[in-house]
UniProtKB/TrEMBL annotation:
Belongs to the GMC oxidoreductase family. This is GMC oxidoreductase-like protein. GO terms for molecular function: flavin adenine dinucleotide binding; oxidoreductase activity, acting on CH-OH group of donors. Its cofactor is FAD. It comes from the Eukaryota. InterPro entries: FAD/NAD-bd_sf, GMC_OxRdtase, GMC_OxRdtase_N, GMC_OxRtase_C. Keywords: FAD, Flavoprotein. FAD binds at V223. One of its GO terms (biological process) is secondary metabolite biosynthetic process. The active site is at H525, H568. Residues 263-277 form the Glucose-methanol-choline oxidoreductase N-terminal domain. It comes from Podospora didyma.
Amino acid sequence: MPRFSHISETVLVIEYGQIEYAPGIFDPPATVWAGAQPGLASTWLFSSLPNPEVKNKPALVFAGKAVGGSSTSNGMFFDRGSRFDYDAWADVGSPEFDSHHDKWSWKDIFPYFKKSVTFAEPPASVVHKYGYTWDLAAFGGTTPIYSSFPPFLWGDHSLMRNAWEELGVPVLKECAGGDKAGLCWIPISEHPITARRSHAGLGHYADVNETRPNYDLLVRHQVIRVAYPHDLKRGPPMVEVRSLADNRIFNVTAKAEVILSAGAFHTPTVLHRSGIGPASVIREAGIPLVLDLPGVGNNFQDHSGPSITWNYTTPLNVTDPLPIAMLNATFAAEALEGFKSIPARGPYTLSQSNSALYLSLLTMAGANATKTILHKIRTLISSGTASSFLPQSYRSDPTMIAGYEAQLSTLARKIYSRCSAPSIEVPWATGTAARLFLLHPLSRGTVRLNSTHPLEQPILDYRTGSNPIDFDIHLAHVRYLRRIFTTPTMITAQANELALGEAIASDDAALLNYVKDTMTFSFMHPCCTAAMLPLNKGGVVGPDLKVFGAEGLRVVDMSILPLLPSSHLSATAYAVGEKAADIIIRAWS
Protein backbone atom coordinates (compact mmCIF):
# COMPACT_ATOMS: atom_id res chain seq x y z
CA MET A 1 0.00 0.00 0.00
CA PRO A 2 1.40 3.46 -0.89
CA ARG A 3 2.95 5.96 1.53
CA PHE A 4 3.29 3.71 4.59
CA SER A 5 6.76 5.24 5.07
CA HIS A 6 4.92 8.00 6.96
CA ILE A 7 4.19 5.47 9.73
CA SER A 8 6.78 4.41 12.30
CA GLU A 9 5.49 0.83 12.59
CA THR A 10 6.85 -1.84 10.27
CA VAL A 11 4.46 -3.01 7.57
CA LEU A 12 4.70 -6.68 6.62
CA VAL A 13 3.12 -7.72 3.31
CA ILE A 14 2.49 -11.46 2.95
CA GLU A 15 2.20 -12.56 -0.69
CA TYR A 16 1.19 -15.90 -2.16
CA GLY A 17 3.18 -15.20 -5.32
CA GLN A 18 6.61 -13.81 -5.88
CA ILE A 19 8.28 -10.93 -7.68
CA GLU A 20 8.15 -11.54 -11.43
CA TYR A 21 8.79 -9.68 -14.62
CA ALA A 22 5.32 -8.89 -15.94
CA PRO A 23 5.24 -8.58 -19.74
CA GLY A 24 2.70 -6.34 -21.38
CA ILE A 25 -0.34 -7.74 -23.12
CA PHE A 26 1.56 -7.72 -26.43
CA ASP A 27 5.29 -7.92 -25.87
CA PRO A 28 8.07 -9.80 -27.66
CA PRO A 29 8.54 -12.61 -28.51
CA ALA A 30 4.84 -12.73 -29.54
CA THR A 31 4.34 -12.27 -33.27
CA VAL A 32 0.54 -12.56 -33.38
CA TRP A 33 -1.52 -9.79 -31.83
CA ALA A 34 -4.56 -11.20 -29.98
CA GLY A 35 -6.93 -9.02 -28.05
CA ALA A 36 -7.57 -11.66 -25.40
CA GLN A 37 -3.94 -12.64 -24.85
CA PRO A 38 -3.14 -12.48 -21.13
CA GLY A 39 0.18 -11.31 -19.76
CA LEU A 40 2.69 -13.94 -18.86
CA ALA A 41 3.03 -13.28 -15.15
CA SER A 42 1.70 -16.10 -12.96
CA THR A 43 -2.07 -16.34 -12.62
CA TRP A 44 -4.76 -18.49 -11.10
CA LEU A 45 -7.25 -19.82 -13.64
CA PHE A 46 -10.76 -20.50 -12.39
CA SER A 47 -13.61 -22.38 -14.00
CA SER A 48 -16.89 -21.56 -12.27
CA LEU A 49 -19.85 -23.78 -11.62
CA PRO A 50 -22.13 -24.13 -14.67
CA ASN A 51 -24.52 -21.24 -15.35
CA PRO A 52 -28.00 -22.82 -15.67
CA GLU A 53 -29.53 -19.77 -17.34
CA VAL A 54 -26.86 -19.74 -20.06
CA LYS A 55 -26.85 -23.33 -21.30
CA ASN A 56 -24.92 -24.61 -18.28
CA LYS A 57 -21.68 -23.08 -19.49
CA PRO A 58 -18.96 -22.23 -16.94
CA ALA A 59 -17.22 -18.89 -16.61
CA LEU A 60 -13.47 -18.79 -17.12
CA VAL A 61 -11.59 -16.11 -15.20
CA PHE A 62 -8.02 -15.57 -14.12
CA ALA A 63 -6.49 -13.57 -11.28
CA GLY A 64 -2.91 -12.43 -10.86
CA LYS A 65 -0.67 -14.49 -8.61
CA ALA A 66 2.57 -12.46 -8.78
CA VAL A 67 3.49 -9.57 -6.49
CA GLY A 68 1.25 -6.79 -7.79
CA GLY A 69 -1.78 -9.05 -8.22
CA SER A 70 -3.88 -8.77 -11.34
CA SER A 71 -2.11 -5.55 -12.37
CA THR A 72 0.68 -7.89 -13.55
CA SER A 73 -1.56 -9.79 -15.96
CA ASN A 74 -4.58 -7.67 -16.89
CA GLY A 75 -5.37 -6.09 -20.27
CA MET A 76 -3.69 -2.78 -19.24
CA PHE A 77 -6.91 -0.85 -20.02
CA PHE A 78 -6.73 2.05 -17.57
CA ASP A 79 -10.13 3.74 -17.34
CA ARG A 80 -12.27 5.10 -14.53
CA GLY A 81 -15.98 4.71 -13.99
CA SER A 82 -18.45 7.55 -14.41
CA ARG A 83 -19.33 9.86 -11.55
CA PHE A 84 -22.70 8.10 -11.31
CA ASP A 85 -21.05 4.81 -10.33
CA TYR A 86 -19.34 6.20 -7.24
CA ASP A 87 -22.32 8.34 -6.31
CA ALA A 88 -24.25 5.06 -6.41
CA TRP A 89 -21.86 3.68 -3.78
CA ALA A 90 -22.83 6.53 -1.49
CA ASP A 91 -26.50 6.14 -2.35
CA VAL A 92 -26.70 2.44 -1.53
CA GLY A 93 -25.00 3.10 1.81
CA SER A 94 -27.49 5.82 2.73
CA PRO A 95 -28.80 6.75 5.22
CA GLU A 96 -26.70 4.53 7.48
CA PHE A 97 -23.33 5.88 6.31
CA ASP A 98 -24.40 9.51 5.81
CA SER A 99 -22.83 10.77 9.05
CA HIS A 100 -19.62 8.74 8.73
CA HIS A 101 -16.40 10.72 8.43
CA ASP A 102 -15.19 8.74 5.42
CA LYS A 103 -17.19 9.28 2.21
CA TRP A 104 -17.01 7.40 -1.09
CA SER A 105 -19.00 9.46 -3.61
CA TRP A 106 -17.38 10.72 -6.83
CA LYS A 107 -16.20 13.99 -5.31
CA ASP A 108 -14.63 12.05 -2.44
CA ILE A 109 -12.74 9.49 -4.52
CA PHE A 110 -11.88 11.64 -7.56
CA PRO A 111 -8.87 13.27 -5.85
CA TYR A 112 -7.45 9.79 -5.25
CA PHE A 113 -7.90 8.84 -8.89
CA LYS A 114 -5.83 11.89 -9.75
CA LYS A 115 -3.24 11.20 -7.07
CA SER A 116 -2.79 7.50 -7.80
CA VAL A 117 -1.37 7.70 -11.33
CA THR A 118 1.18 9.68 -13.31
CA PHE A 119 -0.23 10.43 -16.75
CA ALA A 120 2.21 11.14 -19.60
CA GLU A 121 1.08 13.35 -22.45
CA PRO A 122 1.85 11.87 -25.89
CA PRO A 123 4.28 13.61 -28.28
CA ALA A 124 2.79 16.19 -30.63
CA SER A 125 3.57 14.04 -33.67
CA VAL A 126 1.55 11.14 -32.24
CA VAL A 127 -1.32 13.45 -31.33
CA HIS A 128 -1.35 14.86 -34.85
CA LYS A 129 -1.42 11.39 -36.42
CA TYR A 130 -4.08 9.72 -34.27
CA GLY A 131 -6.08 12.58 -32.79
CA TYR A 132 -5.64 11.72 -29.12
CA THR A 133 -7.35 14.10 -26.70
CA TRP A 134 -7.15 14.46 -22.92
CA ASP A 135 -7.66 16.91 -20.08
CA LEU A 136 -4.81 17.33 -17.61
CA ALA A 137 -7.31 18.50 -14.99
CA ALA A 138 -8.30 14.85 -14.60
CA PHE A 139 -4.75 13.91 -13.56
CA GLY A 140 -1.96 15.30 -11.41
CA GLY A 141 -0.34 12.40 -9.59
CA THR A 142 3.40 11.76 -9.21
CA THR A 143 3.36 8.10 -8.22
CA PRO A 144 5.42 5.43 -10.01
CA ILE A 145 2.19 4.08 -11.53
CA TYR A 146 2.03 5.31 -15.12
CA SER A 147 -0.59 5.66 -17.81
CA SER A 148 -0.03 6.79 -21.38
CA PHE A 149 -1.30 6.55 -24.95
CA PRO A 150 0.57 4.18 -27.26
CA PRO A 151 2.52 5.78 -30.14
CA PHE A 152 1.06 3.25 -32.60
CA LEU A 153 -2.41 2.14 -33.71
CA TRP A 154 -3.45 -0.54 -36.18
CA GLY A 155 -4.61 0.62 -39.57
CA ASP A 156 -8.27 -0.33 -39.08
CA HIS A 157 -8.61 1.29 -35.65
CA SER A 158 -10.28 4.38 -37.10
CA LEU A 159 -13.02 2.41 -38.86
CA MET A 160 -15.05 1.72 -35.72
CA ARG A 161 -14.43 5.22 -34.38
CA ASN A 162 -15.68 6.75 -37.63
CA ALA A 163 -18.70 4.44 -37.69
CA TRP A 164 -19.74 5.30 -34.13
CA GLU A 165 -19.40 8.99 -34.92
CA GLU A 166 -21.64 8.53 -37.96
CA LEU A 167 -24.27 7.03 -35.63
CA GLY A 168 -24.21 10.27 -33.68
CA VAL A 169 -22.23 9.03 -30.68
CA PRO A 170 -20.69 12.01 -28.84
CA VAL A 171 -16.91 12.31 -29.04
CA LEU A 172 -15.50 13.14 -25.61
CA LYS A 173 -12.25 14.99 -25.01
CA GLU A 174 -11.65 13.19 -21.72
CA CYS A 175 -13.42 10.28 -20.02
CA ALA A 176 -11.43 10.13 -16.76
CA GLY A 177 -13.08 13.20 -15.22
CA GLY A 178 -16.41 11.63 -14.35
CA ASP A 179 -18.30 12.08 -17.62
CA LYS A 180 -18.27 8.96 -19.77
CA ALA A 181 -21.17 8.75 -22.20
CA GLY A 182 -19.69 8.67 -25.67
CA LEU A 183 -16.46 7.79 -27.50
CA CYS A 184 -13.39 7.68 -25.27
CA TRP A 185 -9.66 7.51 -25.73
CA ILE A 186 -8.41 5.25 -22.95
CA PRO A 187 -4.82 5.41 -21.69
CA ILE A 188 -3.06 2.16 -20.88
CA SER A 189 -1.00 1.16 -17.85
CA GLU A 190 2.33 1.48 -19.63
CA HIS A 191 5.53 3.40 -19.00
CA PRO A 192 5.62 6.22 -21.57
CA ILE A 193 9.30 5.75 -22.46
CA THR A 194 9.99 2.02 -22.24
CA ALA A 195 6.45 0.83 -23.12
CA ARG A 196 6.77 -1.80 -20.37
CA ARG A 197 3.73 -2.70 -18.28
CA SER A 198 3.30 -0.40 -15.29
CA HIS A 199 1.99 -2.43 -12.36
CA ALA A 200 1.78 -2.45 -8.59
CA GLY A 201 4.64 -4.94 -8.21
CA LEU A 202 6.92 -2.27 -9.63
CA GLY A 203 5.27 0.96 -8.59
CA HIS A 204 4.33 0.02 -5.04
CA TYR A 205 7.17 -2.32 -4.21
CA ALA A 206 10.25 -2.56 -6.42
CA ASP A 207 10.53 1.15 -7.22
CA VAL A 208 10.17 2.26 -3.60
CA ASN A 209 11.56 -0.60 -1.52
CA GLU A 210 15.00 0.89 -0.92
CA THR A 211 13.58 4.13 0.46
CA ARG A 212 11.16 2.45 2.88
CA PRO A 213 12.98 0.44 5.55
CA ASN A 214 9.70 -0.20 7.36
CA TYR A 215 8.21 -2.10 4.39
CA ASP A 216 8.87 -5.85 4.37
CA LEU A 217 7.64 -8.37 1.82
CA LEU A 218 7.27 -12.09 2.51
CA VAL A 219 6.71 -13.97 -0.74
CA ARG A 220 5.56 -17.54 -1.44
CA HIS A 221 3.43 -17.73 1.68
CA GLN A 222 -0.31 -18.33 1.98
CA VAL A 223 -2.42 -16.61 4.59
CA ILE A 224 -4.57 -19.38 6.04
CA ARG A 225 -6.71 -17.37 8.41
CA VAL A 226 -6.84 -14.63 11.00
CA ALA A 227 -7.37 -15.77 14.58
CA TYR A 228 -8.51 -13.97 17.72
CA PRO A 229 -6.82 -15.62 20.74
CA HIS A 230 -9.21 -13.91 23.17
CA ASP A 231 -12.30 -12.34 21.59
CA LEU A 232 -13.31 -10.22 18.62
CA LYS A 233 -13.12 -7.01 20.62
CA ARG A 234 -9.48 -7.56 21.50
CA GLY A 235 -7.71 -7.13 18.19
CA PRO A 236 -5.78 -7.10 16.04
CA PRO A 237 -5.93 -10.81 15.25
CA MET A 238 -2.98 -13.10 14.70
CA VAL A 239 -2.33 -14.22 11.15
CA GLU A 240 -1.77 -17.92 10.49
CA VAL A 241 0.58 -18.40 7.55
CA ARG A 242 1.75 -21.40 5.51
CA SER A 243 5.06 -21.51 3.68
CA LEU A 244 4.58 -22.73 0.11
CA ALA A 245 8.19 -23.96 0.12
CA ASP A 246 7.96 -26.48 2.97
CA ASN A 247 4.34 -26.30 4.27
CA ARG A 248 5.55 -24.96 7.60
CA ILE A 249 2.75 -23.16 9.47
CA PHE A 250 3.43 -20.27 11.84
CA ASN A 251 1.69 -17.22 13.32
CA VAL A 252 2.41 -13.55 12.71
CA THR A 253 1.37 -11.09 15.39
CA ALA A 254 0.35 -7.56 14.48
CA LYS A 255 0.80 -4.51 16.68
CA ALA A 256 -1.61 -2.09 14.98
CA GLU A 257 -3.98 -3.96 12.67
CA VAL A 258 -4.32 -6.60 9.95
CA ILE A 259 -5.30 -5.55 6.43
CA LEU A 260 -6.65 -8.15 4.03
CA SER A 261 -5.93 -7.33 0.40
CA ALA A 262 -6.31 -10.68 -1.33
CA GLY A 263 -8.94 -9.72 -3.90
CA ALA A 264 -12.54 -10.62 -4.62
CA PHE A 265 -11.82 -14.37 -4.62
CA HIS A 266 -9.31 -14.85 -1.83
CA THR A 267 -10.31 -12.26 0.77
CA PRO A 268 -13.65 -14.01 1.43
CA THR A 269 -11.83 -17.35 1.41
CA VAL A 270 -9.44 -16.20 4.15
CA LEU A 271 -12.39 -14.90 6.16
CA HIS A 272 -14.29 -18.17 5.72
CA ARG A 273 -11.27 -20.15 6.99
CA SER A 274 -11.19 -17.74 9.92
CA GLY A 275 -14.76 -18.63 10.89
CA ILE A 276 -16.01 -15.25 9.66
CA GLY A 277 -18.89 -15.30 7.19
CA PRO A 278 -22.37 -16.77 6.69
CA ALA A 279 -23.03 -19.21 9.52
CA SER A 280 -24.30 -21.91 7.16
CA VAL A 281 -21.18 -21.73 4.97
CA ILE A 282 -18.80 -21.80 7.94
CA ARG A 283 -20.55 -24.73 9.62
CA GLU A 284 -20.79 -26.70 6.38
CA ALA A 285 -17.00 -26.47 6.14
CA GLY A 286 -16.66 -27.84 9.68
CA ILE A 287 -15.07 -24.62 10.93
CA PRO A 288 -16.01 -23.14 14.32
CA LEU A 289 -18.15 -20.05 13.80
CA VAL A 290 -16.37 -16.94 15.07
CA LEU A 291 -18.51 -14.20 13.53
CA ASP A 292 -21.77 -14.59 11.60
CA LEU A 293 -21.31 -12.09 8.79
CA PRO A 294 -23.70 -13.05 5.95
CA GLY A 295 -22.17 -10.81 3.28
CA VAL A 296 -18.78 -12.52 3.13
CA GLY A 297 -18.49 -14.22 -0.26
CA ASN A 298 -21.87 -12.93 -1.44
CA ASN A 299 -22.84 -10.02 -3.71
CA PHE A 300 -20.36 -11.34 -6.32
CA GLN A 301 -20.39 -9.31 -9.57
CA ASP A 302 -18.40 -9.23 -12.81
CA HIS A 303 -18.82 -7.78 -16.27
CA SER A 304 -20.11 -10.12 -18.98
CA GLY A 305 -21.75 -9.87 -22.36
CA PRO A 306 -22.23 -11.17 -25.90
CA SER A 307 -20.48 -10.06 -29.08
CA ILE A 308 -21.25 -9.13 -32.65
CA THR A 309 -18.89 -10.17 -35.45
CA TRP A 310 -18.33 -9.39 -39.11
CA ASN A 311 -15.83 -9.69 -41.92
CA TYR A 312 -14.78 -7.44 -44.76
CA THR A 313 -15.56 -8.83 -48.19
CA THR A 314 -12.85 -6.72 -49.87
CA PRO A 315 -9.36 -5.68 -48.68
CA LEU A 316 -9.40 -2.63 -46.44
CA ASN A 317 -8.21 0.64 -47.90
CA VAL A 318 -5.94 1.69 -45.00
CA THR A 319 -2.44 3.14 -45.02
CA ASP A 320 -1.17 1.89 -41.64
CA PRO A 321 -0.41 -1.80 -41.07
CA LEU A 322 -2.91 -4.41 -39.89
CA PRO A 323 -2.05 -7.12 -37.33
CA ILE A 324 -1.42 -9.63 -40.12
CA ALA A 325 1.74 -7.64 -40.93
CA MET A 326 3.36 -9.23 -37.86
CA LEU A 327 3.58 -12.47 -39.86
CA ASN A 328 6.00 -10.74 -42.21
CA ALA A 329 9.53 -11.44 -40.94
CA THR A 330 10.86 -8.02 -41.93
CA PHE A 331 8.00 -6.14 -40.30
CA ALA A 332 8.25 -8.28 -37.15
CA ALA A 333 11.98 -7.59 -36.89
CA GLU A 334 11.35 -3.85 -37.23
CA ALA A 335 8.67 -4.09 -34.54
CA LEU A 336 11.17 -5.75 -32.19
CA GLU A 337 13.73 -3.04 -32.82
CA GLY A 338 11.07 -0.42 -32.16
CA PHE A 339 10.29 -2.01 -28.80
CA LYS A 340 13.96 -1.83 -27.84
CA SER A 341 14.23 1.83 -28.82
CA ILE A 342 14.15 4.71 -26.36
CA PRO A 343 11.42 5.86 -26.48
CA ALA A 344 9.76 2.66 -27.63
CA ARG A 345 7.68 2.70 -30.81
CA GLY A 346 5.69 0.37 -33.05
CA PRO A 347 3.18 -2.44 -32.48
CA TYR A 348 4.73 -3.76 -29.29
CA THR A 349 3.67 -0.57 -27.50
CA LEU A 350 0.03 -1.70 -27.78
CA SER A 351 -2.09 -3.35 -25.12
CA GLN A 352 -5.48 -5.04 -25.43
CA SER A 353 -7.34 -1.90 -26.56
CA ASN A 354 -7.23 1.84 -26.07
CA SER A 355 -10.61 3.11 -27.28
CA ALA A 356 -14.12 2.39 -26.11
CA LEU A 357 -17.75 3.29 -26.63
CA TYR A 358 -19.90 4.01 -23.55
CA LEU A 359 -23.62 4.64 -23.84
CA SER A 360 -26.63 4.67 -21.54
CA LEU A 361 -29.54 2.25 -21.72
CA LEU A 362 -31.85 5.22 -22.36
CA THR A 363 -29.82 6.19 -25.42
CA MET A 364 -29.78 2.69 -26.87
CA ALA A 365 -33.18 1.28 -25.94
CA GLY A 366 -35.22 4.48 -26.12
CA ALA A 367 -37.60 5.92 -23.58
CA ASN A 368 -40.38 3.31 -23.85
CA ALA A 369 -38.18 0.22 -23.61
CA THR A 370 -36.16 1.78 -20.78
CA LYS A 371 -39.37 2.60 -18.93
CA THR A 372 -40.43 -1.05 -19.25
CA ILE A 373 -37.11 -2.30 -17.86
CA LEU A 374 -37.21 0.17 -14.98
CA HIS A 375 -40.77 -0.91 -14.19
CA LYS A 376 -39.60 -4.53 -14.00
CA ILE A 377 -36.78 -3.63 -11.62
CA ARG A 378 -39.03 -1.59 -9.35
CA THR A 379 -41.71 -4.29 -9.37
CA LEU A 380 -39.16 -6.78 -8.02
CA ILE A 381 -38.73 -4.49 -5.03
CA SER A 382 -42.36 -3.52 -4.44
CA SER A 383 -43.66 -7.07 -4.86
CA GLY A 384 -41.01 -8.60 -2.60
CA THR A 385 -39.94 -11.02 -5.34
CA ALA A 386 -36.37 -9.75 -5.79
CA SER A 387 -35.10 -12.43 -3.42
CA SER A 388 -36.30 -15.18 -5.77
CA PHE A 389 -33.35 -14.34 -8.05
CA LEU A 390 -30.76 -14.49 -5.29
CA PRO A 391 -28.63 -17.53 -4.45
CA GLN A 392 -30.54 -20.04 -2.38
CA SER A 393 -27.92 -19.80 0.36
CA TYR A 394 -28.96 -16.31 1.41
CA ARG A 395 -32.56 -15.90 0.35
CA SER A 396 -33.68 -16.36 3.93
CA ASP A 397 -31.37 -13.67 5.31
CA PRO A 398 -33.28 -10.36 5.63
CA THR A 399 -30.09 -8.27 5.55
CA MET A 400 -28.98 -9.76 2.23
CA ILE A 401 -32.42 -9.21 0.72
CA ALA A 402 -32.49 -5.62 2.01
CA GLY A 403 -29.07 -4.97 0.52
CA TYR A 404 -30.04 -6.39 -2.84
CA GLU A 405 -33.25 -4.39 -2.98
CA ALA A 406 -31.27 -1.25 -2.10
CA GLN A 407 -28.87 -2.00 -4.96
CA LEU A 408 -31.73 -2.49 -7.42
CA SER A 409 -33.29 0.78 -6.33
CA THR A 410 -29.99 2.62 -6.69
CA LEU A 411 -29.29 1.17 -10.12
CA ALA A 412 -32.79 2.11 -11.31
CA ARG A 413 -32.55 5.69 -10.01
CA LYS A 414 -28.87 6.52 -10.45
CA ILE A 415 -27.83 4.53 -13.51
CA TYR A 416 -30.48 3.09 -15.81
CA SER A 417 -32.80 6.11 -15.82
CA ARG A 418 -30.09 8.61 -16.83
CA CYS A 419 -28.83 9.57 -20.28
CA SER A 420 -25.29 10.23 -19.07
CA ALA A 421 -24.75 7.05 -17.02
CA PRO A 422 -23.35 4.31 -19.29
CA SER A 423 -24.76 0.80 -19.18
CA ILE A 424 -22.49 -0.64 -21.88
CA GLU A 425 -18.82 -0.62 -22.83
CA VAL A 426 -17.48 -1.66 -26.24
CA PRO A 427 -13.66 -1.56 -26.26
CA TRP A 428 -11.58 -2.10 -29.39
CA ALA A 429 -8.17 -1.80 -30.99
CA THR A 430 -8.58 -3.65 -34.27
CA GLY A 431 -10.39 -6.60 -35.78
CA THR A 432 -13.86 -7.73 -36.74
CA ALA A 433 -15.67 -8.19 -33.45
CA ALA A 434 -17.29 -5.97 -30.85
CA ARG A 435 -17.59 -7.22 -27.28
CA LEU A 436 -20.56 -5.79 -25.39
CA PHE A 437 -19.91 -5.34 -21.65
CA LEU A 438 -22.99 -5.23 -19.42
CA LEU A 439 -21.64 -2.70 -16.94
CA HIS A 440 -24.22 -3.01 -14.16
CA PRO A 441 -25.57 -6.58 -13.93
CA LEU A 442 -28.54 -7.33 -11.70
CA SER A 443 -27.56 -10.98 -11.19
CA ARG A 444 -25.50 -11.89 -8.13
CA GLY A 445 -23.18 -14.82 -7.54
CA THR A 446 -21.13 -16.29 -4.72
CA VAL A 447 -17.55 -17.14 -3.81
CA ARG A 448 -17.34 -20.08 -1.43
CA LEU A 449 -14.63 -21.89 0.46
CA ASN A 450 -13.85 -25.33 -0.93
CA SER A 451 -15.00 -27.17 2.18
CA THR A 452 -13.26 -30.45 1.27
CA HIS A 453 -9.97 -28.75 0.31
CA PRO A 454 -10.00 -25.46 2.24
CA LEU A 455 -6.45 -24.42 1.31
CA GLU A 456 -7.15 -24.78 -2.39
CA GLN A 457 -8.95 -22.32 -4.65
CA PRO A 458 -12.52 -21.23 -3.82
CA ILE A 459 -15.64 -22.29 -5.70
CA LEU A 460 -17.11 -19.59 -7.93
CA ASP A 461 -20.78 -19.49 -8.83
CA TYR A 462 -21.33 -16.69 -11.33
CA ARG A 463 -25.09 -17.24 -11.74
CA THR A 464 -25.00 -15.18 -14.94
CA GLY A 465 -28.50 -14.29 -16.10
CA SER A 466 -30.15 -15.50 -12.88
CA ASN A 467 -31.99 -12.18 -12.91
CA PRO A 468 -33.69 -12.26 -16.34
CA ILE A 469 -33.77 -8.47 -16.62
CA ASP A 470 -30.08 -8.69 -17.50
CA PHE A 471 -31.11 -10.40 -20.73
CA ASP A 472 -33.59 -7.60 -21.50
CA ILE A 473 -30.67 -5.19 -21.32
CA HIS A 474 -28.40 -7.42 -23.41
CA LEU A 475 -31.02 -7.54 -26.16
CA ALA A 476 -31.34 -3.75 -26.18
CA HIS A 477 -27.56 -3.42 -26.39
CA VAL A 478 -27.23 -5.82 -29.33
CA ARG A 479 -30.08 -4.27 -31.30
CA TYR A 480 -28.62 -0.81 -31.00
CA LEU A 481 -25.03 -1.75 -31.80
CA ARG A 482 -26.03 -3.61 -34.97
CA ARG A 483 -26.69 -0.17 -36.42
CA ILE A 484 -22.97 0.12 -37.02
CA PHE A 485 -23.47 -1.90 -40.21
CA THR A 486 -25.72 0.84 -41.62
CA THR A 487 -23.03 3.55 -41.41
CA PRO A 488 -21.26 4.86 -44.52
CA THR A 489 -17.90 3.74 -43.16
CA MET A 490 -18.93 0.11 -42.73
CA ILE A 491 -20.86 0.07 -46.02
CA THR A 492 -17.83 1.43 -47.88
CA ALA A 493 -15.60 -1.15 -46.18
CA GLN A 494 -18.14 -3.83 -47.18
CA ALA A 495 -18.54 -5.15 -43.65
CA ASN A 496 -20.58 -8.35 -43.66
CA GLU A 497 -22.41 -9.17 -40.40
CA LEU A 498 -21.90 -12.77 -39.29
CA ALA A 499 -24.14 -15.17 -37.36
CA LEU A 500 -26.77 -12.59 -36.51
CA GLY A 501 -28.75 -10.59 -39.08
CA GLU A 502 -32.14 -8.89 -39.06
CA ALA A 503 -34.20 -12.09 -38.88
CA ILE A 504 -32.60 -13.09 -35.59
CA ALA A 505 -32.34 -9.57 -34.19
CA SER A 506 -36.05 -8.91 -34.65
CA ASP A 507 -37.10 -12.10 -32.84
CA ASP A 508 -36.76 -11.99 -29.04
CA ALA A 509 -36.33 -15.75 -28.60
CA ALA A 510 -33.83 -16.08 -31.42
CA LEU A 511 -31.82 -13.08 -30.24
CA LEU A 512 -31.81 -14.37 -26.67
CA ASN A 513 -30.40 -17.66 -27.93
CA TYR A 514 -27.74 -15.74 -29.87
CA VAL A 515 -26.78 -13.78 -26.75
CA LYS A 516 -26.39 -16.99 -24.76
CA ASP A 517 -24.33 -18.59 -27.55
CA THR A 518 -21.88 -15.69 -27.73
CA MET A 519 -21.73 -14.84 -24.02
CA THR A 520 -18.39 -14.07 -22.39
CA PHE A 521 -19.08 -14.72 -18.73
CA SER A 522 -16.17 -12.77 -17.30
CA PHE A 523 -14.25 -9.79 -18.60
CA MET A 524 -11.98 -10.33 -15.60
CA HIS A 525 -13.46 -7.69 -13.29
CA PRO A 526 -14.61 -9.67 -10.22
CA CYS A 527 -15.63 -7.64 -7.19
CA CYS A 528 -17.94 -6.94 -4.33
CA THR A 529 -17.62 -10.07 -2.14
CA ALA A 530 -16.88 -8.18 1.11
CA ALA A 531 -19.00 -5.18 0.32
CA MET A 532 -18.85 -1.72 1.87
CA LEU A 533 -22.51 -1.67 2.83
CA PRO A 534 -24.37 -1.14 6.10
CA LEU A 535 -24.53 -4.24 8.27
CA ASN A 536 -28.32 -4.31 7.93
CA LYS A 537 -27.85 -4.47 4.13
CA GLY A 538 -25.47 -7.41 4.14
CA GLY A 539 -22.32 -5.33 4.43
CA VAL A 540 -18.93 -6.63 5.55
CA VAL A 541 -16.97 -3.40 6.00
CA GLY A 542 -17.88 0.18 6.77
CA PRO A 543 -16.62 3.34 5.04
CA ASP A 544 -13.40 3.09 7.09
CA LEU A 545 -12.99 -0.43 5.57
CA LYS A 546 -13.01 -2.06 9.01
CA VAL A 547 -14.72 -5.45 9.21
CA PHE A 548 -17.90 -5.16 11.25
CA GLY A 549 -17.49 -6.76 14.66
CA ALA A 550 -13.82 -7.74 14.23
CA GLU A 551 -11.47 -5.31 15.96
CA GLY A 552 -8.19 -4.56 14.21
CA LEU A 553 -9.19 -6.12 10.88
CA ARG A 554 -9.62 -4.17 7.68
CA VAL A 555 -10.14 -5.03 3.98
CA VAL A 556 -8.62 -3.00 1.13
CA ASP A 557 -9.20 -4.52 -2.30
CA MET A 558 -11.91 -4.86 -4.94
CA SER A 559 -14.02 -7.09 -2.71
CA ILE A 560 -15.15 -3.98 -0.80
CA LEU A 561 -16.99 -2.44 -3.75
CA PRO A 562 -20.77 -2.47 -3.22
CA LEU A 563 -21.48 -2.18 -6.97
CA LEU A 564 -19.46 -2.67 -10.14
CA PRO A 565 -18.34 0.61 -11.73
CA SER A 566 -18.57 1.23 -15.46
CA SER A 567 -14.88 0.50 -15.92
CA HIS A 568 -12.12 -2.04 -15.76
CA LEU A 569 -10.94 -2.24 -12.16
CA SER A 570 -7.24 -1.42 -12.03
CA ALA A 571 -7.55 2.38 -11.84
CA THR A 572 -10.27 2.04 -9.21
CA ALA A 573 -8.07 -0.36 -7.24
CA TYR A 574 -5.25 2.20 -7.10
CA ALA A 575 -7.64 4.98 -6.06
CA VAL A 576 -9.18 2.81 -3.33
CA GLY A 577 -5.67 1.97 -2.12
CA GLU A 578 -4.66 5.63 -1.94
CA LYS A 579 -7.84 6.64 -0.12
CA ALA A 580 -7.49 3.68 2.25
CA ALA A 581 -3.90 4.72 2.98
CA ASP A 582 -5.11 8.17 4.06
CA ILE A 583 -7.82 6.61 6.25
CA ILE A 584 -5.33 4.24 7.89
CA ILE A 585 -2.59 6.85 8.36
CA ARG A 586 -5.09 9.17 10.00
CA ALA A 587 -6.24 6.37 12.32
CA TRP A 588 -2.70 5.30 13.24
CA SER A 589 -1.57 8.86 13.79
